[in-house]
Amino acid sequence: MPRVGLNQQTVVREAARLADEVGYQQLTLAALAGRLGVALPSLYKHVRGADALARKLSALATAELATELTTAAAGRAGGDALRAMADAYRDYARRHPGRYPATQQVPDPADPEHVVAGERAVGAIYAVLRGYGLTGDDAVDATRALRSALHGFVSLEAAGGFGLSREVDRSYHRLVAGMDLAFQSWPRARGTADQADQP
Amino acid sequence: MPRVGLNQQTVVREAARLADEVGYQQLTLAALAGRLGVALPSLYKHVRGADALARKLSALATAELATELTTAAAGRAGGDALRAMADAYRDYARRHPGRYPATQQVPDPADPEHVVAGERAVGAIYAVLRGYGLTGDDAVDATRALRSALHGFVSLEAAGGFGLSREVDRSYHRLVAGMDLAFQSWPRARGTADQADQP
DNA sequence: CCATAAAGCTAATCCCATTAGCCGCGATCG
DNA sequence: CGATCGCGGCTAATGGGATTAGCTTTATGG
């Protein structure tokens, strides 16, 4: 039969597009194969299975998100950087409702690209917080706090947890303003975070 | 054959126990039926299907969480109430790793108990924030912010997103302290939230 | 004691994931 | 130019879960 000419790249990229259209939970090898004009088992020539595809998708989405966060923060500092990054974060989640959930999967240690993408994403947040004078354990805690706030808001919003109100933008900006304030007065406690600690 | 004597209550309760043991994603009608000593299709006499079971489980878990939040906040105010409630929230999520994800499903409008449970949970948070002098739109925004922070942290923790570090407690307490500070200085902006607005 | 509703069952169907094994296209090498 | 061989596609088969249909049996209440 005519060769379609797939490779892992094209398969994973199409998976990302499909996930954004039908939702992360509805991303299925069967649907993906149909989309690519190929029989389901043919996908196994490019990905090891559904789990592996999910991990590859996670690596892709995490890399994209990391890039957007880094770009948003570039050339800014303090509250400016925080707001720009927060907007970029929510923006990505809304533009890519299927990819975003994939970014929450913990990076696969066996996939260097995945690991690097995760480090870049966390690193982007970490860098912004250095702008508040936070380092070491303080920065680790602050990074976790910021990730929590942004991820929590964005995932509640995606789940429809905020009802139909149109005032969600305002709520988000106030949350970010609250985090900004918190980071300004973040308790300066201890010195060095263990290098092994994942923020 | 000997009747087992199931009803919707027992089925949903066993589903909750099973979810906590094997994880929300691994909760399956097949596994549940096995656990109850019954053939899979027999479950359809008590629940309409997998989706309906998930909604009933959500109602159960949301009600439990609402009760624990309310209890934690009882007799406290301001930062005390906030810290107690935050601890109760995380505690619930850690004691019930399978039920907790169910609480994030938006309440089924057709199930009054589910709706009430959701209102109680949000109401508990809302009440604590009134202790900061927040009302109307301000309280709506603050409620969304607090839910985001708590849910975000707890779900990242459950996903293993914080690595293996043992210092997660400290990070959580600092996040809560940051929210406390933010609520103390929360911008007092507008008056009344639309009654229809879901925080 | 019987009628009936409810609670179980088996069987059948459908969808998805996975594995095994076949086949032809096409790039490469002699 | 033609033979080869690896790779990318295929079909078929298996197994697990959800759902529906329809049968049987148990309790229970009149």
State the largest interface. Answer: A-B, 45 and 45 residues
Q: State the CATH class of the domain at 57-184 in chain A.
A: Mainly Alpha
Oligomer: homodimer
Q: Which blocks of ≥5 consecutive residues of chain A have pLDDT under 50?
A: none
**Range of helix content of chain A:** 55-70%
Notes on the protein architecture:
Helix content of chain A is 64%, strand content 0%. Chain A is mainly alpha-helical. Chain A contains eight helices and no strands. The first copy, chain A, binds a DNA duplex (30 and 30 nucleotides) through residues 1-6, 28-30, 38-42, 44-46, 49-50.
Quick overview of this protein structure:
Two copies of one chain form a homodimer. Chain A has 199 residues and is mainly α.
What is the topological layout?
2 copies of one chain form a homodimer.
Chain A: H1 8-22, H2 29-36, H3 50-73, H4 78-95, H5 99-102, H6 112-130, H7 136-158, H8 168-184
Helix pairs in contact in A: 1-2, 1-3, 3-4, 3-6, 4-7, 4-8, 6-7, 7-8
Chain A binds a DNA duplex (30 and 30 nucleotides) through residues 1-6, 28-30, 38-42, 44-46, 49-50.
